[in-house]
Specification:
The structure holds three protein chains of three kinds.
Chain A lengths: L2 H15 L1 H33 L32 H34 L4 H15 L3 H12 L10 E3 L3 E4 L2 E4 L1 E4 L5 H27 L5 H19 L4 E4 L2 E2 L4 E2 L2 E3 L1 H28 L2 H9 L4 H31 L3 H4 L4 H13 L2 H30 L5
Antiparallel strand pairs in A: 1-2, 2-3, 3-8, 4-5, 6-7
Chain B lengths: L2 E2 L15 H9 L4 H27 L19 H5 L1 H6 L7 H19 L7 H20 L15 H27 L4 H16 L2 H15 L8 H26 L3 H9 L4 H31 L11 H9 L8 H34 L2
Helix pairs in contact in B: 5-6, 7-8, 7-10, 7-13, 8-10, 9-10, 10-12, 11-12, 12-14, 13-14
Chain C lengths: L1 H6 L5 E12 L2 E12 L3 E5 L6 H8 L7 E6 L2 E2 L4 H10 E4 L11 H11 L5 H14 L15 H13 L5 E5 L7 H16 L3 E5 L3 H7 L2 E6 L2 E6 L1 H6 L4 H13 L1
Parallel strand pairs in C: 3-8, 3-9, 6-7, 7-8
Antiparallel strand pairs in C: 1-2, 1-4, 4-5, 9-10
Subcellular location (chain B): Cell inner membrane; Cell membrane
Protein name (chain B): Amino acid ABC transporter permease
Keywords (chain B): Cell membrane, Membrane, Transmembrane, Transmembrane helix, Transport
């Protein structure tokens, strides 16, 4: 073989050993396999759908649903005329309602228990620890079913409702509260609340400027709290209390008046909040622990009181560690709300991926749309998290 | 000007009020008026709750008997659990064949003991036993159809047995799958990376129920005519894929913690990519991730309860069915407390093991 | 004993430790500590690790609690009384081995935090004071940077400036250079020396014997929770009286 031919041989072999060429080769293989797989699945699906006489496409969204829904918020629903699209929207609203309430409640529970878990009081500390260790190790579904089937259904019948005072009833059909029914002039209440909130922000700004100039510290928190509570009250009194109270009262078979919270919603809310609260407590605890003890010591040795130390030194650093896993717990709670199916709460999964799917038989569309909803929420939360992390990242070399 | 001490001062015991039980109580329980109040209130609350629970669950409860009539007390009626114990444990597995499940449990327990504890140092044979031998034997034992054992269809599997099967198989499949996905996500080949990221982010963004629905309802549509998948297998596919995505993120975290220098050192020794991964990188990455891996396992174990919604008869589902049985109406509390207790024991045990393992491995890391 | 201590002129005596004992559980960590520090005095405390030197100075600003005996700072006795503790902490500044700067605040904000929130100083005035001290420690140009962006030596100097912004009358140093790379030790020691030359009362726990020889009025040797020997530096280093002091010095000076 001549020298040139040998060189060409070597060049050819080396070309294939070139990692870049190999990478391209592998990727082409992967794409081909993937496309083949998708085609295979699609082909089978088309055949199967035809065989079972199931329609395809999204026309079903404009067709009447024809079934009743237990809990309907913010929208009108009629089983005759409302379409599956309406069903989807109601499901979304119901999911968001229980998720947002759950997130608020879980955060409150979680922060309180997390702080208690760090308490120097041994009894309090251990109670918090027991709560966390017990709740975290029992499946959420078991806890939900416990709340719904074991607790709420053991509540008395309507006729024998437990009552707290004369206006607050608890029975197996839910909880009944007195309700405020707006009459003319009711607008002063929300407006005055808004005014109070805006005023608090201005006061906060003013207090900061004043502190910068004179060094004096103004109790912004307490003053704002007082404003937010008192201003609406005063406005209401000034307008002659523009609402009537509707009190729940016993009718012949049920309680009329007032406002009631369905047991399904209540059970789901309780279950989700208590469960997620335990996880949030652990996150809060490790966040606060993550701030090194030396920070507290340095702050104390400068003369800062414990309350100031917590507010100015510990909390800002702890929050950096707490917020990322906290938002992922919020996402978990929203996804876990899908367990509503098991206890009959009409969330998006139970309604759309459940009843609507059964009615129309169009499993693929229903499930995919439902998944799309959760994916969007997931995406929103991730975007928020990325933004938050970028904003508060500690500046280092 | 120098001041010198010539005799050594003896070690004295601390003042009584500072140490021992009294000192500890002063420090931790009664250090301030607010603290003391908190302690008293908390102790009262605990006593009230505990006495209620003990009287319900033990003092006024019924343990003995066979039927509803034996529930005479005002407390819990544990007879309900006892009477349906067989179903709770095995589902509808034929009574005379239940020994097969028990044998499987024993074999698996031995394997776990050998792999997870320190009594056997060289893990090679325990690993082969646990991850190759036991699964194969258990398959033939539980399902039957060969070696003279009658077939027991998966539709008859239920109760705690089914829960354990679901959890073990999903865990067994999701860890290697998760590792592959994690490696794929870090790949330099864009197509591979995109597919892996897409899969992981999609699965992590949706609830497990929708994945189970997908597996349960859509899988039969995806397959050609005539190919039928067991309901159990559909659930297993759904759970394994779901768990693999989370596992992938955990492994990815572990891989990120390994300094780049490790791969560079491996390559400069002449190791190829897969050799370097298998011998150097992955062992370290997995070791670091163990607490998170065990946490994912615990989550998976709890998630097996969701198969109730797609109609599989795991422990929770069977107990729930029991509470709607005509004879046992009203036993919801006892049933769910029992299920909660069983799961708690398993999950708490796993988390304690993880802590023990982490401590043990940490000492290896100390310089 | 306490009467006699209090009749001395309080203005001259900065710190008094009288018969102080401390236990960690059953472990007797500080045994019968008796020490008087006059205003303007510079004390260096040395000794093997575990001898209780850090614990002792941390008791002075109540980062640790003593169980027996008295601690009197600037005429104020240190007890569980929170107001007294706060008063004392305003007069005593502390510099830590690991700096303990607040990473989420700029250098300037680190220095102005306490004056603004404890002494209620207006912001502009606090910043002026902070810049003055940052110039004293020779890093005014770093004022708007974050601690994570500075070297170890720079961070420790910021820590010193931060303490000085509260105008303390006494400064405590707990092994201030032990966590620094060798080439940065001298910049911190120089700062401390200039502080000493201005008349600050200082207690410094350190292994830097060169610093002790330059600046200290008294060197104190501690071992196993007791003060074994106290002497002016020349006497201490050239003529240590106790055997344990001799042993310690031979180990340190061999390597130093």
């Amino acid at each position: 073989m001549t020298a040139e031919a040998a060189d060409l041989e070597v060049a050819k072999i080396n070309k294939f050993r070139d990692p870049r060429i190999r990478a391209i080769f592998y990727q082409i293989v992967v794409i081909v396999l993937f496309i083949a797989f998708v085609w295979y699945v699609g082909h089978n699906t088309a055949i199967n759908l035809e065989k079972r006489g199931i329609a395809s496409g999204f026309n079903f969204l404009s067709q009447p649903a024809g079934f009743g829904i237990g809990i309907v918020l913010l929208m009108d629903y009629s089983s005759q005329t409302s379409t599956h699209l309406d069903v989807l929207l109601i499901g979304i609203i119901n999911t968001l309602a229980v998720s947002i309430s759950g997130i608020l409640l879980a955060t409150i529970i979680g922060f309180i228990v997390g702080v208690l878990r760090l308490s120097k009081n041994w009894v309090v500390n251990k109670i918090a620890a027991v709560y966390i260790e017990v709740i975290r190790n029992i499946p959420l579904l078991v806890q939900l079913m416990f709340w719904y089937f074991a607790v709420l259904s053991v509540l008395p019948l309507v006729g024998d409702s437990m009552s707290i005072g004369n206006n607050f009833f608890v029975n197996n059909r839910g909880v009944n509260f007195p309700a405020m029914i707006p009459s003319t002039g009711f607008w002063v209440l929300p407006v005055s609340l808004l005014v109070a909130i805006v005023a608090s922000l201005f006061i906060r700004n003013w207090a900061h400027k004043r502190q910068d100039l004179t060094g004096q510290i103004f109790p912004v928190f307490w003053v704002s709290l007082a404003l937010i509570i008192l201003l609406p009250v005063i406005a209401s009194l000034a307008m002659g209390n523009p609402f009537t109270m509707s009190y729940p009262e016993f009718g012949r078979f049920s309680i009329k008046g007032g406002w009631s919270m369905e047991p399904e919603f209540l059970a789901l809310l309780l279950g989700l909040s208590i469960y997620t609260g335990a996880f949030i407590a652990e996150i809060v605890r490790s966040g606060i622990n993550a701030v090194s003890h030396g920070q507290t010591e340095a702050a104390h040795s400068l003369g800062l009181r414990p309350s100031m130390t917590t507010r100015l030194v510990i909390l800002p650093q702890a929050l950096r560690v707490i917020v990322p896993p906290l938002t992922s717990q919020y996402l978990n709670l929203t996804k876990n709300s899908s367990l509503a199916t098991a206890i009959g709460y009409a969330d998006i999964t139970a309604l759309f991926a459940g009843t609507s799917l059964n009615q129309t038989g169009q499993a693929i569309e229903c499930i995919l749309i439902t998944m799309l909803f959760y994916l969007s929420i997931s995406l929103l939360i991730s975007m928020f998290m990325n933004w938050y992390n970028k904003r508060i990242a500690l500046v280092e070399r | 000007m120098a001041i010198v001490k010539t005799e050594r001062h003896e070690d004295l015991p601390p003042p009584v009020s500072q140490t021992g039980v009294i000192g500890w109580m002063r420090e931790n329980l009664f250090s301030s008026p607010l603290n003391a109040l908190l302690t008293v209130v908390s102790i009262y609350v605990v006593w009230w709750a505990l006495s209620g629970i003990i009287s319900y669950a033990f003092i006024n409860a019924n343990f003995v008997g066979e039927t509803r009539e034996d529930c005479t007390g005002t407390g819990a009626c544990w007879v309900f659990i006892k009477a349906r114990f067989g179903q709770n444990m095995y589902g509808f597995y034929p009574v005379e064949e239940r020994w097969r499940v028990d044998v499987g449990y024993v074999l698996a327990a031995i394997g776990l003991f050998l792999v997870l504890t320190d009594y056997v140092k060289n893990k090679k044979w325990p690993a082969i036993y646990m991850f190759v031998f036991v699964p194969i034997v258990c398959y033939f034992l539980f399902y039957g159809g060969s070696f003279g054992l009658p077939v027991v269809e998966t539709s008859q599997w239920g109760g705690l047995f089914l829960t354990l099967v679901l959890a073990s198989v999903s865990i067994f499949v999701s860890l290697p799958l998760g590792i592959v996905l994690a490696l794929g996500r870090r790949s330099s080949m864009p197509i591979v990376r995109m597919l892996c990221v897409g899969f992981i982010e999609f699965v992590r963004g949706v609830p497990l129920i929708t994945v189970l629905f997908m597996a349960s309802v859509m899988l039969p549509l995806f397959l050609p005519e005539g190919v039928n998948f067991d309901k159990l297998i559909r659930a297993l596919v759904g759970m394994s894929l779901f768990s693999a995505a989370y596992m992938a993120e955990v492994v990815r975290g572990g891989l990120q913690a390994i300094p780049k220098g490790q791969m560079e050192a491996a390559k400069s020794l002449g190791l190829g990519y897969w050799q370097a991964m298998g011998l150097i990188i992955l062992p370290q990455a997995l070791k670091i991730s163990i607490p998170s891996i065990v946490n994912t396992f615990i989550g998976l174990f709890k998630d097996t309860t969701l198969v109730l919604i797609i109609g599989l008869l795991d422990l929770l589902s069977i107990v729930k069915a029991g509470t709607t049985d005509k004879e046992w109406v009203g036993m919801a509390t006892e049933g769910y407390v029992f299920v909660a207790a069983v799961f708690w024991v398993f999950c708490f045990g796993m988390s304690r093991y993880s802590i023990w393992l982490e401590n043990k491995l940490h000492t290896g890391h100390k310089r | 004993m306490s009467e006699a201590a209090m009749t001395q002129s309080d203005i001259d005596v900065a710190i008094q430790l009288i018969g102080m004992h401390k236990w960690y559980g059953e472990f007797h960590v500080l045994k019968d500590i008796n020490l008087t520090v006059e205003r303007g005095e510079k004390i260096v405390v040395c000794g093997p690790s575990g001898s209780g030197k850090s614990t002792m100075i941390r008791c002075i600003n109540r980062l640790e609690e003593h169980q027996q005996g008295q601690i009197i700072v600037d005429g104020i006795e240190l007890t569980n009384d929170v107001k007294k503790i706060d008063e004392i902490r305003r007069e005593v500044g502390m510099v830590f081995q690991h700096f303990n700067l607040f990473p989420h605040l700029t250098v300037l904000e680190n220095c102005t935090l306490a004056p603004i929130w404890v002494r209620k100083t207006p912001k502009a005035e606090a910043e002026e004071i902070a810049m003055k001290f940052l110039e004293r420690v020779k890093i005014p140009e770093q004022a708007l940077k974050y601690p994570g962006q500075l070297s170890g030596g720079q961070q420790q100097r910021v820590a010193i400036a931060r303490s000085l912004c509260m105008n303390p009358r006494i400064m405590l140093f707990d092994e201030p250079t032990s966590a620094l790379d060798p080439e940065m030790i001298s910049e911190v020691l120089d700062t401390m020396i200039s502080l000493a030359e201005e008349g600050m009362t200082m207690i410094c726990v350190t292994h830097e014997m060169g610093f002790a020889k330059t600046v200290a009025d008294r060197v104190i040797f501690m071992d196993e929770g007791e003060i074994i020997e106290q002497a002016p530096p020349t006497e201490f280093f050239e003529n240590p009286q106790s055997e344990r002091t001799q042993l310690f010095l031979s180990q340190i000076l061999h390597n130093g």
